Amino acid sequence: MAEPDPTDLFLPTSFPYPVKVVSVDATAGSRIVRGTRLLTYSFVHVPTNRDAQPEPRFGTWDSAIEGQITSWGVVPGDVVSAKRAREQPVVVVLEDCKHGMQLGGMCVLCGKDMTVADYIGFADTSRANIQMTHSADGPTVSLEEAERIERENIEELLNARKLTLIVDLDQTIVHATVDPTVGEWRAEGAAWKARHADKPDDDPDDTLNPNWDALEDVAEFKLKPEFKTPDAHDGPTYYIKRRPGWEKFLREMSLKYQMHVYTMGTRAYAEEVCALIDPTGDVFGRRLLSRDESNNMTRKSLERLFPCDTSMVVVIDDRADVWEWTPNLLKVVPFDFFVGIGDINGTFLPKNTMLGPAAPEKPPPAPTKLAPGDPPSPTRTPSTVEAAEKALIKENEIALEAQVEERPLAKKQEELKEEVKADVPVLKNDDNELARIRRLLEEVHNEFYAAYDKSDKKPAAVGRRKTKAKLSYDCTEIILRKRAQVLAGVHIVFSGVIPLDTNPEVSEHWRLARMFGARCSTDLSADVTHLVCAKPGTVKADAAMRRGGIHVIRAEWFADCLNLLARQDETLYPLEGMRTTMGTKAAPASSASPASSSTAKSSDDDEGWDEPPAPGGSLKLEAINWDDINDEVDAAMNESDDDEEDEAGMGTGAGAMSEDEWSERDDVSSAHTNSAPNTPTRGKRKRLRSVTPSDAGGVNGSPSSKRKKLSTGSERAGPSSASKLKEGVTAEELASLKKLPLINTDVPPTSGSRSRAGSDAGGGGDEEEEEDDEDGEEEDDEDDFLARELEEDWG
């Protein structure tokens, strides 16, 4: 073995910085052992008592390792700050042994006991805490040793022109169940086959189970329960269906990849399954990692086997979420042979939403600079970890027992028989997913070595602490490039898919869409190409269909694109109730955003929204000055205090609305202000109160005089553009007003208009009377002074 590199020693982070070096107590070239004093330092102590003065204090720093000092980085009188202590070593020591590989509390290299504890507080066991073997009882190594091992492994792979492939078992290569129905069906099929081995089938009542053809190659084995109990039985029988094409897949991929198994099943289960798919051990050998060794029962991590470099590693798994969508992953469509069973070893896993992880767990920190004397960081106690794992395992056992008792396959077969009135198989043997995955793996392998052959053929520096440039022959870059091509050129808007309480831009759907090359928006802008909907009937779905040129599709399209690593045919995913995934081209909207100009879904607005407005009666629409009308509405709004208060209250609680609800409000507003031909649905509106002399700055007069004053800019109230009065006055309503008899303003006011006259006459008592009459005068509200004034101006 080559001579180890010198060890850099850094001051502990727990020192009261800044510190001043008083003396160097061990000279360069001298030998040191554990406990040898290295230096003495001083620092300024600030008492907690407010009246006390700061005072100098002293401390010493002793060695936690053995070896020979080669050089010092400080001299007496130096002041060391916390930043300098982190970045620059204080002393360099050449050790006899770095204890970089340990097993059972002893150094594998020198045999020294690593569990000795003393006042220094630095345990030698912390120097080799990386577990990178497939065994739970295997040796642990230091970061430096892990880098050396991976460097050697990379050189071997490059010389053999192979890559590394991590293979999941359940629902990737095999599907398993403990449903005893499978055993009964297999027994029936085997008995039928034995009866008809030597004689023809002449008994019409002696029929073969329709599932026999698919079950003929199913294997089985028994496993003992993980926890022995007084009433424990021998454990359930596991029935294993190997995925069609598994033999060719394993045989061909083993020529191009060094293959490892990484499963959430137990070690005993994984060994039994590997004995079925690799009986000779030529494919996987002893490279098998189960949940018993992975130290995590809900997540899988590449760092468990490859702590320093993953540039030559590819993963195939049906669960992308447990890998947190690592760039090394090729997602596999789950093998669901036993219908309704799922993953028997995934009961304790997070619910499979297909669309990735929750917040990613932080990986365990790598051992960095050696700083003897640092206090150990608090961790979970072994007892709490063991209790949590036992609870998860017990939950999985309960699920298996329920599967044995409930017999879900038998129920599925009965349901199918009642539905089709015939004996048809519920189990299908038509899966071809491994052929697709094999082609993808061959592409990754070919692209990697094509890029490697064009390079200088020098392996990159291995190590998590080293900053290295991206290489063209990197599996992560190749897979990320393939992902980005899937939805390239696609501009997606999600409708009803992202939860209301989630910021769309940080949701997993948005993140995955971007990862796979798509652009995302929250609004139906002009360049949107796809609307991905969770359900039909949303405002955005209706608007997209009317506008045309947008694929309005189910969310399954998005999921299948990610699963299959290829853009799927949109015509196969029409939204329920829609005529087609591409709406017919509608008339261009008047506003810039199609979403803002679309109409909310209602019986009043659905029909004829894009038809040209037809003139009603004798009303000449082209003769109307709409700017004057808007001024009239603004003037009316400025006279109403109540409506301003109501408008201020409308914003309350709006933050909890979904995007579609906001779009619906905008759409309704647009439909009313854009002179739509249909009659809008009008909401309840309060009576307008006339402005009293005190409100109007002492100006008395008719509404006409007030409008004239407003037009000169001498009187202005707060904004009121959001009022429903603006929305309510349409051309069609004005046409209907032409049919009403002209109201003579000289006639004494009726019950519908008395508050206006009474208010201008100078009394506050009519306001109280007006409030009493509001509930019973909704129809009178429609006949307000604004309609009369407009009638006068146009009549």
TrEMBL record:
Pfam families: NIF (PF03031), PTCB-BRCT (PF12738). Residues 355-384, 584-624, 637-795 are annotated as: Disordered. Residues 360-379 have a biased composition (Pro residues). Residues 158-355 form the FCP1 homology domain. Residues 670-681 have a biased composition (Polar residues). Its EC number is 3.1.3.16. One of its GO terms (cellular component) is nucleus. The keyword Hydrolase applies. The keyword Hydrolase applies. GO terms for molecular function: RNA polymerase II CTD heptapeptide repeat phosphatase activity. This is RNA polymerase II subunit A C-terminal domain phosphatase. The lineage of its organism: Eukaryota, Fungi, Dikarya, Basidiomycota, Agaricomycotina.
